[in-house]
Design a protein that fits this description.
By secondary structure, this protein is of the alpha/beta class. The protein contains 20 helices and 26 strands. The chain has a 14-stranded mixed beta sheet. The chain has a four-stranded parallel beta sheet with strand order 5-4-6-7. It has a four-stranded mixed beta sheet with strand order 23-24-25-26, with helices on one face. Helix 17 runs antiparallel to helix 18. The longest helix has 33 residues.
Length: 728
């Protein structure tokens, strides 16, 4: 089953036609038009071209560019980044953008792309230094001074290789994908035919600079005479994105599903518009929103489109890295008639001009612009009778239950049919038993819809019994979830993709019957007798008691060594002596808890919603101080003379003021909402997404049922779409 597309070939295209020549054409025609809008860093086409020419001359003068060179860029300010990307192309080299805020990711990208030189400032060079011999051209004041003395005229045309860019797939491997000049231009032309850009358009891309959405997407504005709106800081935040769309009158927004939901549905002003059943007045400038990065269900696409002004378009793009961000697209008007069950359908739609979609043995293959062998995407799909390609899951997500592999997507889609569920992911976790005898079980992780306004978030999500009743008769018993975890939001990575591996797993395979009539995770956990459970709990209590005694004894001994006489109670009558002794024990335990939390607390805090590594680290250290400070503080106070005012003042300022500051930091951390997918601060381990804290809901053993798996039948729906970057 093959779904073709119109040819991408431009018969009038010259051999030297590239994205760079398209940009330079607008430089000649409209040098005074705005190319970049970035606050004080805004540039016209003429200014951007002049600075790119200087950057190209600086690269060529360095003598570090062999033929067919690849130059890596580690610059984070977006305006400077565009200057460097154009300068690299003008110097006849290919560019690649690496992530400097996450050094581990950046080092993987450098190892995959193998550039001949890196453009970075001193701080970025230090972050990315892996002990290799990569040559670096430093950016900064010294480089700007040297570049400023160079001519702004175009450099002599350097021999240009076929490669234009090297992009990266997602995942831990960060595979490098070279893009030729022809493919980058063909992808742009296919996109332009579908969207119909005009020079008056103002484009905003929310993706990080090293991701395909931005690294290949900047051509959408600068090759069509439009303006590219950039953040003044290193990244977009929810507030800055909303302000930019309104203030800059953005007409075309390129984003991922979660960011689109944040802006169009979850935003406070959008919520008011939804209540009044009208489009968001603050976003009336938007005529087009393109959404890519992950699957998008038809009801989600309809909800997003409803927030835009009448006549605006919402395009769901299926864009692999190999196709420079194009591949297939779907928008609701492509439906010949309304479809039933939109919350369970995700459509990929039809191929972009120059692309071809082919379904082989259930897997989607994509022929990219420029031709070549079809690329297996790793995604499952089916070509519907109406000619639209329907998304059916991913090979990498397949689970094995009772020795049989199955795709979780149909089950997750069936769960989404519940009116309170906005997102659902299935995961396989260890169930009853231990070690090799532990039996796997299916757990459904549920999150509310974007428009859900309950508090706390997700409080209306179904419990196990309600979910089981909803799925009864629709799923075989082996596919019925054995437990439910409710989440405020599904964890996502920097590109906005759902992260099944980052879901918060249940706390170990402890299968004891804790209630006497059923286990924590339902009947499947009800193993063993009550005697063994009581014995197990007795052992746990015994070890906890022994641990507390050992900790208290060690800390009391350390107290007598560091502060002799501070715990002397020989002159204190009972019962006060006993009360003070208990106080000393609690101080010892609090100090021990602080030491333990110092080493184990931060990772646990990061599981409770992304609030950013900086505020999380500050709150982590503040909690450690709040726990541990009482032990030295009280000992110093007990040894201090009451009338020694200098010592009393020193103790107050050394301990009490920091305690207040620590409490304030914790208060800020607790009251600050989790970051959105487009407000992700650097993560020390970017390949591991964070997830909010789950709320476990017990489920009794699933009742056997026999039914067909949803999504297998072709039923007529009511609204439309999916999306994802299968290659990263």
């Amino acid at each position: 089953m093959t779904q073709g597309s119109e040819s991408f070939t431009h018969f009038g295209r010259r051999a030297d036609d590239t994205v760079l020549s398209r940009f330079e054409r607008w430089v000649r025609d409209t040098p005074g038009a705005h190319a970049l809008a970035a606050g004080t860093g805004s540039l016209t086409y003429g200014q951007l071209d002049a600075r790119a020419n200087q950057s190209a001359r600086h690269l060529l003068d360095s003598g570090l560019l062999p033929e067919r060179a690849v130059v890596a860029v580690g610059s984070t300010p977006r305006a400077e980044l565009l200057v460097l990307l154009l300068g690299i192309l003008k110097a006849g080299a290919a560019y690649t953008v690496v992530d400097v805020e996450n050094p581990r990711t950046g080092q993987r990208q450098l190892a995959a792309a193998r550039p001949c030189v890196l453009l970075a400032d001193a701080a970025d060079q230090a972050r990315l230094d892996d002990g290799g011999d990569l040559r670096v051209i430093l950016l900064g004041a010294q480089q700007e001074a040297a570049t400023g003395r160079l001519s702004t005229d175009p450099p002599d045309r350097a021999p240009r290789g076929d490669a234009a860019a090297v992009l990266f797939t997602g995942g831990a491997d960060r595979r490098a994908v070279p893009l030729s000049q022809e493919r980058l231009l063909a992808a742009h032309e296919g996109w332009a035919r579908v969207v119909g850009p005009v020079p008056e358009d103002r484009h905003l891309i929310t993706a990080a600079p090293d991701l395909t959405g931005f690294a290949a997407g900047w051509t959408r504005a600068l090759c069509e005479g439009g303006t590219l709106v950039l953040p003044e800081g290193p990244r977009w935040t929810p507030a800055s994105l909303r302000r930019a769309v309104d203030a800059e009158r953005v007409t075309v927004l390129h984003t991922d599903p979660d960011t689109a939901a944040q802006l169009l549905v979850r935003d406070r002003e959008a919520s008011l518009s939804r209540t009044l059943r009208r489009p968001d007045e603050g976003l009336r400038s938007l005529r087009m929103v393109t959404v890519t990065g992950d699957r998008l269900y038809l009801d989600e696409q309809a909800a997003l489109l409803a927030r835009l002004r009448p006549g605006a378009r919402l395009l769901n793009v299926y864009g692999p890295t190999e196709a420079a961000g194009v591949g297939a697209r779907f928008e609701l008007p492509q439906l010949a008639a309304p479809l039933d069950g939109p919350e369970e359908l995700s459509l990929i739609g039809t191929a972009f001009p120059g692309c071809e979609l082919d379904v082989r043995d259930g897997q989607i293959h994509l022929t990219v612009p420029g031709g070549g062998e079809p690329i297996p995407t790793g995604d499952l799909g089916v070509l519907r009778p109406d000619g639209l390609l329907e998304f059916r899951g991913r090979l990498r997500d397949r689970l094995t239950v009772e020795g049989k592999a199955f795709d979780p997507y149909p089950v997750e889609s069936a769960i989404r049919g519940h009116e309170a569920v906005g997102a659902a992911l299935l995961a396989e976790v260890k169930g009853a038993g231990t070690g090799v005898n532990a039996r796997p079980m299916l757990v459904a992780f549920l999150a509310p819809a974007a428009e859900d306004d309950t508090w706390p978030p997700g409080s209306d999500l179904p419990d196990g019994g309600e979910l089981r009743r909803h799925l009864a008769g629709r799923l075989p018993g082996a596919m019925m979830p054995s437990a439910v975890f409710r989440l405020p939001r599904i964890p996502r990575d920097r590109a906005g993709r759902e992260q099944r591996a980052a879901l918060p797993m249940p706390p170990g395979p402890a299968g004891e019957d804790r209630s006497g009539g059923g286990s924590k995770y339902g009947g499947a956990y009800a193993r063993g007798d009550s005697g063994s459970n009581i014995a197990g709990w007795a052992g746990v209590i015994f070890f906890i008691a022994v641990g507390l005694v050992l900790v208290a004894g060690f800390t009391m001994l350390l107290t007598m060594i560091l502060w002799p006489g501070s715990t002397d109670l020989s002159g204190v009558p009972n019962p006060y002596a006993t009360l003070f002794f208990l106080l000393y024990l609690f101080e010892c335990w609090a100090f021990a808890a602080g030491v333990w939390f110092l080493f184990a607390g931060r990772s646990r805090m990061r599981r409770h919603g992304r609030r950013g590594p900086r505020i999380t680290a500050a709150a982590h250290l503040a909690i450690v101080y709040l726990l541990a400070a009482w032990w030295p503080q009280d000992n110093f106070y007990r040894l201090a003379a009451k009338q020694d005012w200098p010592q009393q003042a020193a103790l107050v300022y050394a301990f009490n003021i920091p305690l207040m500051i620590a409490a304030g930091i914790v208060a800020v951390y607790a009251s600050r909402p989790p970051l959105s997918a487009f407000d992700v601060e650097p993560d020390p381990d970017p390949d591991r997404a964070s997830a909010p804290a789950p709320v476990p809901v017990p489920v009794s053993a699933p009742a056997p049922a026999s039914a067909s798996v949803p999504g297998q039948a072709q039923a007529p729906v009511r609204d439309g779409g999916p999306t994802r970057d299968p290659a990263g």
